[in-house]
Amino acid sequence: MSVVPNSLPTNPLPRQNQIAAGQPSPSTATALAKRLKTTFEGLISDPAEFRGEITVKVSDIQRIREICSFARKELGFDYLVDITSLDNYGEDPRFTLVYHLYGYGHWQYLRLKADLSEEIGEAPTVIEVWRSADWHEREIYDMMGIRFKGHPDLRRILMWEGYPYFPLRKDFPLAGRPSDMPEVAFTQPAPLAGGPFVTVAGGKDTISREPRVRIPDTDALQMNARLERRPDIKAAHGEAHGPGPIEPKKPGSKNG
Amino acid sequence: MAELREIEVPDAAARVSQACELPTRAATGAEDVADLPSEKMVLNMGPSHPATHGVLRIVLELDGEIITKATPDIGYLHRGDEKIAENMTYTQFIPYTDRLDYLAPLANNVAYVLAVEKLMGLDKQLPPRCQFIRVICCELARVSSHLLGLGSYAMDVGAMTVFLHTFTEREKIYNLCESLTGARFTTSYTRVGGLARDLPPGWTDQCRKFCNEVVANIDETEILLSRNRIFVDRTQGVGIVSKPDAIDYGLSGPNLRGSGVEHDLRKTQPYLVYGQLKFEVPVGSTGDCYDRYLVRLEEMRQSVGLIHQCLDQLPTGPVNVADGKVVLPPKDRVLTRMEELIHHFINVTQGVNAPPGEIYFGHENPKGELGFYINSKGGGTPYRLKIRSPSFVNLSILPRLLPGHMVSDVVAVLGSFDFVMGECDR
């Protein structure tokens, strides 16, 4: 009895193609950037080069879609590598969107940058140009709070629905802020609750939760006094944050 | 004589079905049953499911057994790596890259330090020995990642033996990693401007021995799978990604090449010494699950060839750039000389001094293009570090790809995409 299926090709190996080795040449990317500049006169800055990469600034974010559309159709940038965002905290405009484009025809990278003020906080989506923009834009919305006009499904993607903050903003503290988890996730106490490595929803924040900053009973009062002496730490983390007064454990308590 | 009565069914599903019981053909006398109203079922898959390879959750909307809508839900492994990176020096972030694609930590280490070195303008000064060792690391990681990918994929579609076969070989790679870096998974082997340490004595021979053994294992895997009726039936013609779709959705790595796009960053943007080495890039033709499997299988053979070439050509010499302001000076000099002591102190406390500027570096990782975008305002800490992870982008095609498939095909499609949630969620 034969186990070899009839429908199989005789040679199941994929076809192999030798891609000619190439070296990225900045001049070609510069030429493409210059074409972009001549087409959108006044919108695109001169291409700037750093470490062999070409960056152009777009002065009006609201027209990013037509620029991207042109870059894809006419300049051959058919692969959207990435969209990301910067928070220039303390400056105006506050945000910068960064688009990384790449073309499979010419193997050139191009970076588009466009500023966005906090008051507007909204940029046009480029999802019609590249489908892959979908999740990138959702991530930017999730992490930085920038909205995308025309995005069909602008929901949070990494954090949960209903999370109130935008964690990659510079004014969000590294240790996080306490926030409520949706109640459905925690109807009963979790096993091991109260243990040293267990996160309690809506409980204390990271600083007081982490084992390495937990204070033995006798040190608790001392620690509170020390925190009172360092208002800068408490202020920097905002009122929702900070270890707060640490209560000494009651003798005979089970946890800890 | 026992009394006949209807049995009460207390469970919720049965109650619902009774409440909206459809009129049968006999009752209505209608011929046309196609118009009968039917309900779509919502099925939750994951986040803890053996076939979702981690914590991916997919909400499937089903019409019978056919998927009509698929909504992936990610983020269960989100650790805020990008936020963390903004708050530590470049060198301190290296251990975090181990945990991105935790099936190929060595490749992540290399990708990350190459990005930092590009920002610092060091990439042309790297000693040849360092570059060759880094290529060996990347290719070992690729073999290891594909071995796991193939093994678990075969197990997902019903072939247990392959899993045991590939894991035997993978274990040998981890032994090599252990003697090379001191750790099996959390390698953290690279440093900005070089490596944590040179190859241990006898390592090249062990590596060569492994390369010879793994080729036989890959051949066996191919015999077990490539013409296996069940495997072929479950993968051929399933999960077809067309070439325009693959480009439009930004796929990269073997998933992109499986759809017939001839692109490999090692060829098109050659970094390290890939430009001097001979290897071929396998490309699929139809873009189905079977093609992606074949591409990975062939990539492993090419990787073994690359490791052989590197071991043959491995030059002697230092593994770190000779700049005390970038790499840590040798310990004996730190303890005896003032200048080295200062360099050591500044390097450890403030980090390497990167110039202001921004770079993007894309690296051909086993899973696809792992990119780091670093925006620096100068100093030892990035102002913004964005990780462009291949798994994140590769998964975004699921809502387009899954509808029209059977529920059981989800397993085949997910396995063929070979994603890792550690780098998807970051």
List keywords for this structure.
heterodimer; A: 256 residues; alpha/beta; Beta Polymerase, domain 2; two-stranded parallel sheet; 22% helix; elongated; disordered N terminus; B: 426 residues; alpha+beta; Cytochrome-c3 Hydrogenase, chain B; three-stranded antiparallel β-sheet; 19 helices; 9 strands; globular
Average predicted local confidence, pLDDT of chain B: 86
> What percent strand of chain A?
15-25%
Strand content of chain B: 5-15%
Residue share in helices of chain B?
Answer: 40-55%
User: What is the structural class of chain B?
Assistant: alpha+beta
Side-by-side strand order of the widest sheet of chain B: 1-2-3
Give the name of the CATH superfamily of chain B: Cytochrome-c3 Hydrogenase, chain B
Q: What is the number of helices of chain B?
A: 19
Compressed to H and E, one letter per element, the order of chain A equals EHEEHEEEEHEHHH
Q: Multimeric state of these chains?
A: heterodimer
> Which chains make the largest contact?
A-B, 54 and 62 residues
How large is the radius of gyration of chain B? 26 Å
Poorly predicted parts of chain A: 1-25, 213-218, 237-246
Please characterize this protein's 3D structure.
The complex is a heterodimer of chains A (256) and B (426). Chain A is of the alpha/beta class and 256 residues long. Chain A has 2 domains: 26-149, Beta Polymerase, domain 2; 173-251, no CATH class. Chain A is built from 6 helices and 8 strands. In chain A, strands 2-3-6-5-4 form a 5-stranded mixed sheet. In chain A, helix 3 links the parallel strand 7 and strand 8 (147-149). Chain A is elongated. The termini of chain A are far apart. Mean pLDDT of chain A is 73; it is low at 1-25, 213-218 and 237-246. With 426 residues, chain B is of the alpha+beta class. Chain B has one domain: Orthogonal Bundle (Cytochrome-c3 Hydrogenase, chain B). Chain B has 19 helices and 9 strands. In chain B, the strands form 3 sheets. In chain B, strands 1-2-3 form a 3-stranded antiparallel sheet. In chain B, strand 2 (57-63) and strand 3 (66-73) form a beta hairpin. In chain B, helix 6 packs antiparallel against helix 13 (289-313) and helix 6 packs antiparallel against helix 18 (407-417). The radius of gyration of chain B is 26 Å and the shape is globular. The termini of chain B are far apart. Chains A and B meet through strand 1, strand 4, strand 5 and helix 3 of A and helix 3, helix 9, helix 10, strand 6 and helix 13 of B.
